[in-house]
Amino acid sequence: MGANMKSQILSLLRNSGEYISGQEICQRFGVSRTAVWKAVKQLKEEGYRIEAVQNKGYRLAESPDVLNEQELTNRMETEWAGRIVYYYDKTGSTNTDAKRLASEGAAHGTIVVADDQENGRGRRGRSWQSPAGSNVYFTIVLRPEFEPDKASMLTLVMAMSVAEAIRNYCGIEASIKWPNDIVIDKKKVCGILTEIEIALETNDIQYVVIGVGINTNQKEFPEDVREIAGSLVNAGGRKVSRAGMIQKVMERFEQNYESFVRIEDLSQMRQAYDTLLVNKDRQVKVLDPKGEYTGTAKGINEKGELLVQKEDGQIEAVYAGEVSVRGLYSYV
C-alpha cells in the first residue's frame, strides 16, 4: 500500500463526506479489501477519525489537526504555491531549511513546513516562541524576476494573504499592523520574515524566502509576551486545522503574488491592504533613529511605505527597513 494510494483514499473520503463502501474503494483503485483496511488503519494511526460501519462502509468523521506532507499535498488546489512540500516534525528554522533548498535548486512555490520550530526568528533578530503541535510554521521559496529593491514589498503581499485567509477560513477579524504583523483584538497572532539572496555578479535575485509563524492552537503564552500575543483558538474559541490554514494562505498568496508581479508594485492592492490596516487613521508613534515623532497613519503608498501625516500637516513616507511604528499608547 503506497502513500499515494493512502492519499487517494483520504481524498475520496474527504470529498465525499458520506459513507463509501469498501467494495467501491476496491473497485475504484483496483486493490483488495485487505489493502483498503490496511490503508484506513494507517490513516487512523496518523490521527484521522474514520468511522467504519458494517454494510455502510467508511466515512471521515472530521478533519482533525493532522499535519504532514500527505495532508498538505492532499489539500492544495493552487497552480504553484505550496505544490511541492518539505515537511519536518522538528527543525531549527523553516527559513534556514528553505534557503538551503533554494540554493540547491528548489522550485518557485516550494514550501517548507514544520510541526515544531526550535530557532524561529522575528524581525530584528528576536526569537519566536514555538511549541510543538500547536502552531503554523512554514516558509515559501520564490524566484521572482524583478529588481531586488522590489522584493521587500512581498512581505506586505504575504501579510495581506494571511489576514485574508484567517478571515475567510476562521471567520475572525484579522488586521495588519504595518508592515507585516497580523493582529486580532490588539494581539499579535502572526509574524512574517522575508529574506533575499542576491547574486553578486549580476545583482539579480537568486531567490526570496518568506517565513510565516501563525499562533494557531496555542492557548497559553509566556508571561513576557502574554499582553501582546494572541492565537486563532483564543480569538475564535475553537481549534483550527493547521493544514487547512496553510492551504488557504497559499490560495490567497498565489492570487496576490500574481497581481503584484504584473505591475511590480502594490498599487492594485493598496485599497485592500488599507482596509485591513489596524493603524489606519489612528495616531502612531514613528520610532526613527533620526528622531521619534507622532502622526496619523493614512495607509500605504504603491511601494508599501506607510504614509504618516505629522501634526504640521506634512506627510512622511515611512520605510519599514529603517523604522518601526506602533500605537501611541500600546503595541498597536
Give a topology summary.
Elements: H1 3-16, H2 22-29, H3 33-45, E1 49-53, E2 57-62, H4 69-75, E3 85-91, H5 94-103, E4 111-117, E5 136-142, H6 153-170, E6 175-177, E7 181-184, E8 187-198, E9 205-214, H7 232-236, H8 242-263, H9 270-276, E10 283-287, E11 293-300, E12 306-310, E13 315-318, E14 324-327
Parallel strand pairs: 3-4
Antiparallel strand pairs: 1-2, 4-5, 5-9, 6-7, 7-8, 8-9, 10-11, 10-14, 11-12, 12-13
What does the model show?
There is one protein chain. The protein has nine helices and 14 strands. With 332 residues, the protein is an alpha+beta fold. The strands form three sheets. It has a seven-stranded mixed β-sheet with strand order 3-4-5-9-8-7-6, with helices on both faces. Strand 6 and strand 7 form a beta hairpin. Helix 1 (3-16) packs across helix 3 (33-45) and helix 2 (22-29) crosses helix 3. It is elongated, with a radius of gyration of 22 Å. The relative contact order is 0.11.
